Amino acid sequence: MMQQVKILDGGFSTQLATHVNDTIDGDPLWTARFLVTNPEAIVATHLDFLKAGADIILTNSYQASIDGFSKYMNMTEEESLNLFSKSVEYAKEAVNLFKKDVKNLKNVSENPLIAGSIGPYGACLHDGSEYTGKYCSLVTEEILMDWHRPRIRQLIASGVDLLAIETIPCKKEAEALVKLLKEFPNIKAWLSFSCRNDGENIADGSNFQNVAMQCYKEALQGQILAVGMNCIAPQNVSPLLRGINANNKQEIVPLVVYPNSGETYTVETGWMKTNDSCSLNQFIHEWLNLGVRYIGGCCRTHAEDVVKIRAEVQNWKCA
User: Fold this and answer.
1) Which of 20, 74, 101, 234 has the fewest CB atoms lying closer than 10 Å?
2) What does pTM read for this prediction?
3) For residues 84 and 66, what is the distance between their CA atoms, to the nearest angstrom?
4) How far apart are the C-alpha atoms of 47 and 12, rounded to whole Å?
């Protein structure tokens, strides 16, 4: 039986920028600062994605951490953890507002889910190392588990439906997270990696398919909903996925993909289109045929892109 395809939201910071005048990129807390400074904009951003047709929205907690809130906002551990709860509360508020108006909307999900976003340890370092994994040789599995545990515990306690473990750049952190998830056997999650553009490896140089399948098999049965990647150029996705489900006719391994727009970012120039930039829409049917069952957008994708993704998925179902 074919698993239903779920539509994810898009780039939270990109859509949030349509509601605020403040700087987002370059802030060490990134969008997490707005949990304190502008909750209304967070709710509005979630609502944009719901109205665009997202089946699952992610909490604004990717770059949230006890360390970051302590360093940049002088908060206690308790105050910091409360912001994780706030990220769930704002997502729930958006869902409630959406449900009041859902009958007047077309091509939307009537019962959207909330995924608690769990970004990598490297995100809090604010040095781009979630795209290199260079920190993984400097920290132990125990340190990684101890760092992630309170974030995961708080999001689960606050009532998320599932976890979105995303942009993981190294094998060690992925294995630590799979091990940590076993402490929370009643929650399900997808595991999404930060990958190189070489069609083979995650950011630390480990083979993507080997690491992804190892994590999928070592997790509690059914706890990992899907494995895949995010924040990668659309044209680099298929080579990483191809072959995983080549011989799986009955029970495919569910895959998750939410690429960026294909643009590249540098501190000096900001986001720039490259000569080989591609629209993610042109690859959607190909990804679905490879076994992708969770699909959305990451950096530089808007609510309008979610509308297009949903339309492509619906066309695929009808094909």
Assistant:
1) 74
2) 0.94
3) 10
4) 11
Residue 244 and residue 240: Cα distance in Å, rounded? 9
Sign, CA torsion 5/46/23/144? negative
The confidence score (pLDDT) of residue 270 equals 55
Q: In the prediction, which pLDDT does 13 show?
A: 94
First to last CA, the chain: 17
How far from 318 is each of 119, 287, 306, 313, CA to CA, in Å?
35, 16, 19, 9
Question: Angle 114-101-42 (CA atoms, 0-180°, nearest 5)?
Answer: 45
Low-confidence ranges of the chain (pLDDT < 50): 1-2, 267
C-alpha distances (whole Å) from 216 to each of 15, 185, 202, 204, 224 are 31, 15, 15, 19, 6
3-state SS of the chain?
A: CCCCCEEECCCHHHHHCCCCCCCCCCCCCHHHHHHHHCHHHHHHHHHHHHHHCCCEEECCCCCCCHHHHHHHHCCCHHHHHHHHHHHHHHHHHHHHHHHHHHHHCCCCCCCCEEEEEECCHHHHHCCCHHHCCHHHHCCCHHHHHHHHHHHHHHHHHCCCCEEEEEEECCHHHHHHHHHHHCCCCCCCEEEEECECCCCCEECCCCEHHHHHHHHHHHCCCCCEEEEEEECCCHHHCHHHHCCCCCCCCCCCCCEEEECCCCCEEECCCEEECCCCCCCHHHHHHHHHHHCEEEECCCCCCCHHHHHHHHHHHHHHHHC
Measure the CA–CA gap between 199 and 211, rounded to whole angstroms.
14
Per the listing, tokens 């080989």 go with 276
